[in-house]
Design goal:
This protein is mostly helical. It contains 3 helices and no strands. 49% of the residues lie in helices and 0% in strands. The N and C termini lie far apart (35 Å).
């Protein structure tokens, strides 16, 4: 496996994201661990959340990108 790390200046992030979206890429997360405290917090948030408040991942990404362009 090849790992590439890029340092993107904040003012170029929007351009970079537009460019990278033109490619067929896949995000892979390896070696991710969650502490017991994190699990408890996530469980609590899930139990107190309303399904109407959830967004599909693609919609959430769009909203995050719009915020980063401001």
């Amino acid at each position: 496996m090849t790992r590439i790390t890029l340092n993107i200046p904040d003012n170029e992030l929007s351009f970079f994201m537009q460019l990278i979206e033109k490619f067929n890429y896949e995000t892979v997360i390896n070696e991710f661990s969650v502490t017991e405290e994190m699990k408890n917090l996530l469980d609590e948030r899930r139990s107190t959340s309303k399904a109407d408040d959830f967004l599909p991942w693609n919609e959430a990404k769009k909203q995050l990108r719009l915020k980063s362009k401001k």
